[in-house]
């Protein structure tokens, strides 16, 4: 039985309380590991699955299999990349991914 949202899910939801849209990878600490990336992607998929967030994939120029995933509030109309806030992990989000005591 689930005990509620995990730390990555809480970090995504807390960031959406601050801004309407951001790039998912902006939540990753520096440096980060592959397990951080996998856990963050899983958390985002879980939140999409329960309808708490929406995502959008931006394909990189010249590539068909690489891009960026942006997370946004449900119903927020993302049309241009300029609508997406870049988070500064070192200052504004780092406290969100720290263990909750």
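^ Assign residues to that structure.
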């Amino acid at each position: 039985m689930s005990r509620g949202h995990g730390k990555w899910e809480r970090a995504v939801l807390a960031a959406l309380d601050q801004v309407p849209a951001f790039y998912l990878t902006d939540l990753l600490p520096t440096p980060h590991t592959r397990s951080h990336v996998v856990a963050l992607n899983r958390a985002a998929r879980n939140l999409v699955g329960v309808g708490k967030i929406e995502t959008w994939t931006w394909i990189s120029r010249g590539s068909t299999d690489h891009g960026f995933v942006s997370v946004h509030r449900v119903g927020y109309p993302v049309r241009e990349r300029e609508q997406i806030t870049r988070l500064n992990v070192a200052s504004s989000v780092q406290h969100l991914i720290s263990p909750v005591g």
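The chain is about 35% helix and 15% strand.
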